[in-house]
Amino acid sequence: MDINISSDGIKVDVFRSSGPGGQHMQKTSSAVRITHLPTGLVVTCQNERSQLRNKETAMRVLRSRLLELELEKKTEEQIKLKGEHITAEWGNQIRSYVLHPYKMVKDHRTGYETSNPTAVLDGDLDELLKAYLRSTMAS
C-alpha cells in the first residue's frame, strides 16, 4: 500500500534536541516533531545532526505507523465481515448425517430434520437453506 501524506495534514515542529552531544546540540534546532492532524499521531526524531535527515526519518516512521493503522482497519473490517471464527472441532458440527440403521439428516443450527439423506447428498438443499434463513430472520 502507498501512503500519501499531504502537507496540509501535518504540522512540523523544530526544536533543540536533548541529551549528550556537546555544544552543537544546544545551538541548533535539529530535532523534528511531526504531528499528523487527521489521526493525531505524533512522531519525534532527534537521532541525526541534520534537521533534514531527522525530518526524513520522522516521515518514514509516520508512514509506517499510518500503514499499520490502515492494516489494522482492514483486518477489523475483514473480521467484521467474516463473523465469528469457529474451529472445526468435535461438537461444532453443523449437520449430522445418519445413513444406517435408519436414515436422517439433522441441521443442528436450526433443528430441521429430514428423513431423506439421499436427496440432501445429491444437492437438494432448498429446505435446509429455507430453515436457516428463517432462523436468522427470527434472531
Helix/strand layout:
Elements: E1 10-15, H1 23-27, E2 31-36, E3 41-45, H2 51-82, E4 95-98, E5 104-107, E6 113-114, H3 117-121, H4 126-138
Antiparallel strand pairs: 1-2, 2-3, 4-5, 5-6
Describe this structure in words.
The protein is α+β, with helices and mostly antiparallel strands and 139 residues long. The protein has 2 domains: 7-82, Double Stranded RNA Binding Domain; 95-138, no CATH class. The protein is 40% helix and 19% strand. It contains 4 helices and 6 strands; from the N terminus they run βαββαβββαα. The chain has helices at residues 23-27, 51-82, 117-121, 126-138, and strands at residues 10-15, 31-36, 41-45, 95-98, 104-107, 113-114. The strands form 2 sheets. Strands 1-2-3 form a 3-stranded antiparallel beta sheet, with helices on one face. A hairpin with a 5-residue loop joins β4 (95-98) and β5 (104-107). The radius of gyration is 30 Å and the shape is rod-shaped. It starts with 9 loop residues before the first strand and ends with a helix.
